[in-house]
Amino acid sequence: MTTYGILLVDPTWRDQTSASLEKTTVQHHRKSITPGTHALIYAQEPIDAIVAEAVISGELVETETAPPDPSLNPPIYANVRSAHAIDVMSTPENPPDPITGKQEFGKNYRVPLDVTRPKTITTPIPLNRIKALMGEEFETFDEEWIPLNESDYLKLVGEWAKSG
Questions:
Q1: pTM of the predicted protein model
Q2: 2: Cβ contacts below 8 Å, ≥ 6 apart
Q3: What is the spatial distance between Cα 43 and Cα 159, in angstroms, rounded to a whole number?
Q4: Quick check: 5 and 40 in contact, CB under 8 A?
């Protein structure tokens, strides 16, 4: 059974052979993000339009998420007052919790793509036109994958036949 959806990508995506997905997206939509799935590529702000079409060409690939950049969150050094407050919070009767295990970072995924309608030659379908076809309740907020049924997918792809 063929599945369909909209894959949201960063506006800098340029007909690449893959796109990234967060772990939560994969956990929620794993059954509809499989090899052979047809995906419309939606570039997020400031573009806000469907810009390409692809077919998922393989299994999702798990990747490590990079640790946060320490320069973005510099340590806050203790001064005399904060050191005293730390001493008060942790006493021999109430010791701090021990640090156990190793620190792990979240996982991300790469979804392999076979681009069938490249961004460079495709007329974008803007968000206002998508809403006209799908209904005003259509939103892309905080989603990386929006499952579609076949008729909605064909409605959106039909826009390219009208414009070209």
A1: 0.74
A2: 36, 37, 38, 150
A3: 17
A4: yes
If DSSP states are collapsed to H, E and C, what string results for the chain?
Answer: CCCEEEEEECCCCCCCCEEEEEHHHHHHHHHHCCCCCEEEEEECCCCCEEEEEEEECCCCEEEECCCCCCCCCCCCCCCHHHHHHHHHHCCCCCCCCCCCCCCCCCEEEEEEEEEEECHHHCCCEEHHHHHHHHCCCCCCCCCCEEEECHHHHHHHHHHHHHHC
Q: What is the pLDDT of residues 15-28, one digit of tens each?
A: 889 999 998 899 99
What domains, with CATH codes, occur in the chain?
4-68+107-163 (3.10.590.10)
**CA–CA dist 159, 124 (Å, integer):** 9
Q: Read off the pLDDT of residues 91-142 as tens digits, 9 standing for 90 and up.
A: 666 665 555 554 445 578 999 999 999 998 899 999 999 999 999 888 887 7
* pLDDT band (50, 70, 90) for residue 74: low
Nearest to 51 by CA among 19, 21, 18, 7: 7
